[in-house]
Amino acid sequence: MRVTICDVGPRDGLQNEPETLAPVVRAELVDRLAAAGLPRIETASFVRADAVPQMAGAEEVVAAIHRRKGTEYSGLALNQKGYDRLAAAGLDRVNFTLAATDSFSRRNANQSVEEAAAAAAGVIERAAVPVTLTISVAFGCPFEGRVDPDVVAELAARFTSAEVVLADTIGVATPRQVRHLVERTHAPGVHLHNTRNTGYANAVAALEAGATLFDASCGGLGGCPYAPRATGNIATEDLVYLLEGDGIETGVNLDALIETSVWLESLLGRRLEGQVYRAGPWAGTD
Ligand code: MG
């Protein structure tokens, strides 16, 4: 069995870190991840630079990347304008994010869920590249609490032509909830956070429920919106270790990925959240 891991470190990871890295450094991170064999990398965010300064210069990041055959380079868009910029920059895939609750949608994208869903439908209809539709706060919302699975299932059902990813944006889900929602929606993808230490158990639950696409970030880069002291995305190398140990192919070179997180640690000057890059690989996994 083989799964696809999308490393979201250069976008979702760095967007939620205090440092702002220059576009050329973000491009180097993308290149290192591609060299480690990541089949998909979320490369840049096409949102307003004044709203998210960490993501300024998306076009510069894309221009500085050394494209590697076999790697799919995706980017984030929240509206048609963002998609147009992404398409002009020449990325391979658009990740269009849509929140499951109005409160989060208004805060994050300044539009209601219905407005965002209409924008997503428009992008899907016109896009010249494949579309991933990430439903954020699919399990819990910082403003509205627990999210009704009926609401998420209804949203997911509207976008059968896109690749749907269920996102536990604030890291509150537990394995049974993840299992049930993946089974119910048949969503191929999950975006999990380890904010409350359930991220890896949730990944296993999603896998067993049929998910084949996993977002993760090298070193566990990223934070949790609305929980400033908490950790963010599950770490890619920790997920690779877990999956490969269980005989599930990822195509990722764990040693090269660990080297990337070690490089990131020295670049940022602090310990990252991931554990495997510190513990190291283990020969017994072969
Ligand atoms: Mg995230």
Task: Please describe the structure with a list of short key phrases separated by commas or semicolons.
single chain, 286 residues, alpha/beta, TIM Barrel, 8-stranded parallel barrel, 41% helix, globular, binds magnesium ion
Bound molecules: magnesium ion
Output the strand order for the largest sheet: 1-2-3-4-5-8-9-10
Along the chain, the helix and strand elements come as EHHEHEHEHHEEEHEHEHEEEHHH
End-to-end separation: 16 Å
C-alpha geometry: globular
Number of strands: 12
The structure class reads alpha/beta
What level of helicity do the residues show?
Answer: 40-55%
| CATH fold assignment | TIM Barrel
Could you write a compact summary of the structure shown?
The protein has helices at residues 9-15, 23-35, 58-64, 80-89, 102-109, 113-126, 149-157, 175-185, 199-208, 236-245, 254-268, 276-279; strands at residues 4-7, 40-45, 72-77, 93-99, 131-136, 140-141, 145-146, 163-167, 189-191, 213-216, 223-224, 227-231. With 286 residues, the chain is α/β, with parallel strands linked by helices.
